[in-house]
Amino acid sequence: MRNKLIYISKGILLLCFLSFSSCEIDLVTDPNNPSVQSATSDASLVEIQFLVTGLEGGNRGYYGSASQMFGTFGREVWPYFASDPRFLGDWLSGSTYNSFFGSGGTYGTPYRSVKQANVIIEAAANSSQLTAQQAAGASGFAKTVKGFQLTWPLLQQWNNGIRIDVSDPLNPGPRVGIDNPQAAFAEILTILDDGLNDLNAAGASFPFSFTSAFSEFDTPAKMAQVNRAIAARVALYAENYAAAATALNGSFMDLDVDAGSSDKMYVGPVHVYGDPPDATNPLYAPFDQPTARILICHPAWIEDAEAGDMRLDKVMQLVDNPQTNGGLRDANGDLLVGDYQDVRYANQGEDIPFIRNEELILIYAEVNARQGNTGEATRAINIVRNTWGLADYAGGTSEDELIDAILNERRYSLWNEAGHRWVDLRRTGRLNENYVDLRDTGGLITSVARPIDEVSWDNR
Amino acid sequence: MKYLYGKASLLLVACLFFASAAMAQFTISGNITDGNGEPLIGVSILVKGTTSGTVTDFNGDYTLDVREGSAATLLISYTGFKTIEQDVTSSTGTLNITMEDDIANLDEVVVTGLASGVKRSNSGNAITSIEGDALSDQTNPQTLDNALYGKVPGVQMTANGGAPGGGINVQLRGVSTLGAGSSQPLYIIDGVYMDNSAARNFRSSVSGAGGGSSSSNQDNVSSRISDINPDEIEKIEILKGPSAAAIYGTRANAGVIIITTKKGAAGKSKVSFSQDLGFAKGQNFVGFDDWDEEKIRNYFGSGAEPQLALYREAVAADRIIDWEDFFYGETPLLSNTTVSASGGNQSTQFYASGNFQTEDGIIKNTGYDRYSFRVNIDHKFSDILSVKFNNNFIRTETQRGFTGNQNNTGGSIGYAIAYLPSYINQFPDESGVYPNHPFFGGNPVEVRDVGVNDFIVNRFISAAAIDLNLITKPNYFFKVKINGGADYVASNSLVYFPETMQYQRTLANPGDVIRGSSNNLNTNIQAFAIFNADVGAFNTNTSIGVVRLDQDVEFVANRGQGLAAGQNNLNWAAVQTISAQSVQTITDVGIVAQEDINWQDRIIASLGIRFDKSTLNADQDKFYAFPKASLAVNLHNFEFFNSSLFSQMKVRAAYGETGGLPRFGQTFEALASVQIDGSLGGFIGNQGVDATLEPETASELEFGLDLGFLDNRITLEATYYNKEVRDLILPLNTASSTGIASIATNAADLTNKGVELGLGINPVRNDNINWYTKFLFWNNNSEITRLVVPEFNTGGFGTALGSYAIAEGYSPTTVIGNPDNPNGPVGKTVYGDRQPDFQYSIINQINFLKNFDFSFVLQGQEGGQAINLSAFLWDDGGTTPDWDGDDDGDGVLNGQERPSEAFGGNQNAGVWIEETSYLKLREIGLYYTFPQEVVNSIGFLDRLKLGISANNILLSTTYGSYDPEVSNFGAQPISGGVEVTPYPSSRRFFFHLKADF
Fold it and tell me: What mean pLDDT comes out for the span B924-949?
């Protein structure tokens, strides 16, 4: 009996001990990542720096996708990507559907950077730890990137319009620019203008540092030139030529180009790349390897080039490994061989300028052509042509002829730089078989259908 | 909380006032045999209302001292036989008993609470239990879960593929989560919460499969349930729905599978040796299209000439290869060796087992080895205190090779051979250099020969239990039961593509290796107080307890690219990065109370409630309640019921609720790190947080009727259930323009309704033949009844190739795809449902001429759809069997017509969506047990059994790939049923030898 009592007491003790100790839990906080709130509630300069660097990382996200998909739409390139037949099947088909294959890189990806920019704008406005100048610097940079990133979904969606007010995820704003994408570009322009005002109020230097992407543009005044370069492009797309001309004046455009050197053509902010864990240059591929995934120059770009055009040096002919893919055939059903590889980049860490002087000069030419300044337009065209070893432009000077000439220079100067050809032909009403070589028997896509999540959100 | 425990303590104290007095004592002895007169060893004989008892020895003899009183009732029980209650008095002396087969297992005790169980005949739930001999004695299953096929009504099991080490999606009573919580059942082994998470090995990063959606699911690792050796299992009980699983509360939405391992029995020590030796063959080949000159011209058009030259060269060299047969045609050896010892005396029993299973795959350089060691010890210190220790060490080594999806890397054999004409030379030259695959990123022979995909697991599962029988009286008893344990899983993975491989050579940094390592520790403990009393004609059982589960998960994977020649150490990589590193800490706490009342085995009622909180919830300190109730009425035990036809007539009803927790991290809004140009930045995650997020809860109402006819030679078990899952956690898919892809929120309700029928017949039962046959039929219909977020599609590779729709009024596994259909869910066309219309199985066990046992299990399903993207690739690569046929006679070859139908104008995603009806002969076995006199004459042997068996040898289906069971994305609640050139499944043939010493 005594024995029993001892057991019973022990049992009770054990039960009590277990019941009390086992009901206590330590609340768990995220052991793996800082929270968003920590960065947005009364942000310190250190936190702003983290977000700005993060935005720089996000700013690059669209580039590979735009070059591949827009470039394929405009037949600058063919994607010999064996991993999924839809790269060719869908992209060359000329038809589209909601949540089109491979379209996220120029939609959701840039919008994530827009979100990041909005967080910085909000954090800068709410922080008690930043001076007004510091806050304006952060906000000015964020708005500049935001305006730039917004252009990518709009270029993809075009007549569908896009949402521009997206700061509240549960109450996104309306689509702007339905059947009138120029109106949406005009609204993006106001964001950039807003950013310019902030940069102008940001003092002489930023309170945070940039990567080498902006090494030539790391003061508010210099960043304002980047802002204006983007604004010039956006204004051109908005068909607001006066605004484009003004923006060019504030930009880093430099018409004083030495015909013997192309160096000045490449002046501009860049996307930086490196070895992992950094992002790698999306257009780099070792030359002439037996790969099943490579972007190949469309043969028409070689065939249509003027003799002596040094811009053809951007590609090199494959010797050992010309590409074929069962999904790429001509009207006879024969395989189309791809044999010119993009060789502009020497390694996967090489920078890519994302807006540069050569484009600005060509925007300058186009604006002048639109405004009837044919002489200035021709001068700008010739600056580009002479740089690349070509004689002065000798064609007609009607607006249409000049636009054709400028688009042709853009075709070679801006080849495989995030899909200019498709964008240019569409905005000038030239996206048709007269301008695009369709030997692949495919069709032309004018705009990508809206993503399902957008449609579903509107239909909810 | 404190209040409840205060009460429990009071109850304990009150119990102390009961006392006992010693009385007279007498002895009973005798012999116990089965119907054939064979002695039964290890039969339990218990004095009813006490803890005193004994077991029969090797000859079936027993001797029992009854210590109190001059009369008593003995409970004589043995697994598989009907329990006998026998009154004895001091004058009985010798009592010999013949036990009767319990065909319907009505006397088996099934679990109803965390610390209680009832006889199957009294259970208010349809609980499926499977005895160990049905798991591993019929044939040798690839993994433990494989042994459940066809034996559990209400489960849908779908293998992810045929790779060694297995991997099966187990869905009990339909879909219970749409992806947030655990979609797989909770596995409990000897009271320990098992870690059944599928660890990552980042194969999908090296092979590039991560380019598609759901990247992390494309690693194709085996599930951790495969670590358990089926030979060591005594019994598996399956709590299919919340009505039975409510006792497991917040983690039980997908059901609970309770595994009990073997234990020793008092009596003569026994050593058993068993050896299974066999081989495997690919089950079903597609039969790639032949390449001849016409075909080459059709496929290559004007580019055919160089191909024709290659073809002629290959023909001349007699080097036309059937690649399917070449890669999948190995005949690997399968071996499974187990040595076990068991025995003990009245106070201590032990069971020890060592097991080595080695299986190579039907693809060279793939295979699976398992080493398992177990020691189970039961010890009774006194009538009051007994303890139990179960310890298991397991090591598994898995090589699953490279199949399935890939992107550009060539890192999949199946994918590569879809594009490989039979005349292309892929064999290495004299210096060991592999030729390039001319139409793809990698040479599959090279991938097979030099690619490494190793996964090693070291695992300890330890359980301990303490039973304190504090008070034992004829009319009441009071016990405290404490048990707990730990499951520690340490795994290491190595995925390696040497720098010499075709795709690697095209990279800036050739050579790619990812080494992963994870340490997962689950610990759990529970403590219960149980008070049982006979009150008049009622027996009442009250249990109150607390439970706690802690989980710690640490994972790191490091990647090296740009490797020195032949090196796969990370130090020899030019670029070294961290692929992933994460820590998870989770604690669940619960409080449980349950009351069971039994009125003379006529009406049995059970009521229980569990309160749980978990750190996975948004509100980590909030308790959620999970009630349950069940009622069983045994009409045949009432006096008015007097039928010679019915031996059992039970109606039952049960209700219960369970929970499903958010995934770790879903309640945190995190920044992600970004590396750029040597700087570190923080980038907004694309997942928002809902601060009011609640766990998913499921409630289930189950009705059933159990009938037994003609002394239970015919039994029928019929169950209907309606399981409603509420507050399903779904991504509120925001418009992607907001930069946030989704916010995990309680957004949907779902119902699963189904019928489960089991008909057991013992048509022939005589001295020469005992034939038992069982038919099972079950179905499940799922429907989303409420959806507060916009409809969305999920899974697969986008709607152009088939995906799944989450939409109100539709099953969550509805297969949809292009083209647009304004009336369809998500505005797309419906192609069917991944879940089948119904499933069925036929189990037969025939014992004939006393010593022969023949058994087979047929299992099938009707309906169901899968997205066969293998066929999509075969069409693209010209390898589909009917590629150059022309079914509709329009002059366009099938292999060209299908892709053009799917893309371009028609956008018909249905081209490669196929029905998955099938019938499989899962198991078949024939065994011969040597007669006892023969065995005895050998001397040292006690038992000798030989047999042959096979599994998965017959497959009948119209599905156009290797196996209608497939999932490129692992075990997924919704988005399984998508295949991309998987590892083909195999048939397995065995010879068996089992001997007891």
Answer: 88
Share of chain B above pLDDT 70, in %: 95
Indicate if the alpha-carbon torsion angle B605, B611, B616, B617 is positive or negative. positive
User: A284, B508: Cβ pair inside 8 Å?
Assistant: yes
Residue B197 has pLDDT above 80, yes or no: no
By Cβ distance, the residue of A107, A289, A325 closest to B506 is A289
List of chain A residues whose C-beta atoms are within 8 Å of the C-beta of residue B472: none
Residue of B nearest to A96 (CA): B904
Q: A373 lies in a domain? A: yes
Domain range holding A147? 38-208+219-276+352-437
- Within-domain flag for B8: no
CB-based contact A300:A75 (threshold 8 Å): yes
Q: Is the ipTM of this complex over 0.85?
A: yes
Supply the CATH number for residue B41's domain: 2.60.40.1120
pLDDT of residue B304: 87
DSSP category for residue B108: S
Distance of alpha carbon B642 from the chain centroid: 43
The pLDDT value recorded for residue B180 is 67
Mean pLDDT of A359-369: 98
CB contact under 8 A, A35 and B683: no
Would you state the pLDDT for residue B65? 83
What's the pLDDT tens digit per position in B793-838? Answer: 888 888 889 999 999 999 999 999 989 999 999 899 999 999 999 9
Is residue B738 a part of any domain in this protein? Answer: yes
Last residue of a domain, one of B102, B117, B146: B102
Q: Is A159 helix (H, G, I), strand (E, B) or coil?
A: helix
Q: Is residue A444 part of a domain?
A: no
Residue B488 above 60 pLDDT? yes
With a cut of 80, say whether residue B4 has pLDDT above it: no
Pairing assessment for the beta strands B155-159 and B168-172 based on DSSP bridges: antiparallel
- Interchain pair A25, B678: CB under 8 A: no
Q: Cβ–Cβ of B674/A335 closer than 8 Å? A: no
For residue A329, what is the nearest residue in chain B, using CA coordinates? B301
Distance CA B209, CA B441 (A): 13
pLDDT digits (tens, 9 = 90+) for A95-106: 998 889 999 999
Give the gap in angstroms from C-alpha B583 to the nearest C-alpha of chain A. Answer: 6
- The CA-CA-CA angle for residues A157, A158, A160, to 5°, reads 65
Residues B81 and B137 in one domain: no
Give percent of chain A with pLDDT exceeding 70: 95
Q: Are residues B137 and B58 in the same domain?
A: no
Mean pLDDT in chain A?
92
**Residues contacting residue B465 through CB under 8 Å, at least 6 positions apart:** B191, B387, B388, B481, B482, B483
A264: domain CATH number? 1.25.40.390
Under a CB-based contact definition with an 8 Å cutoff, are residues B584 and B518 in contact? no
Q: Which residues of A touch B204 (CB under 8 A)?
A: none
Considering only CB atoms, which chain A residues are within 8 Å of B385?
7
Task: Tell me whether residues B736 and A11 touch, CB distance under 8 A.
Answer: no
The domain total for chain A is 1
Among the listed residues B10, B123, B122, B50, the one whose alpha carbon sits nearest the alpha carbon of residue B544: B10
Assess whether B583 and B652 both reside in one domain.
yes
Nearest to A35 among B508, B669, B878 (CB): B669
Structure tokens at B301: 């058009």
* Residues from chain B contacting residue A348 (CB–CB below 8 Å): 508-509
Range of the domain at B187: 131-282+331-401+451-790+836-864+916-996
pLDDT digits (tens, 9 = 90+) for A56-78: 999 999 999 999 999 999 999 99
**A130 occurs within a structural domain:** yes
Residue A314 lies in a domain: no
Number of domains in chain B: 2
Do B566 and B492 lie in a common domain? yes
| pTM of the model as a whole | 0.84
Counting every residue written for chain A, the total comes to: 460
Same domain, B559 and B703: yes
CATH number of the domain that residue B352 is part of: 2.40.170.20
Distances (CA, A) of B143 to A131, A303, B490: 65, 61, 19
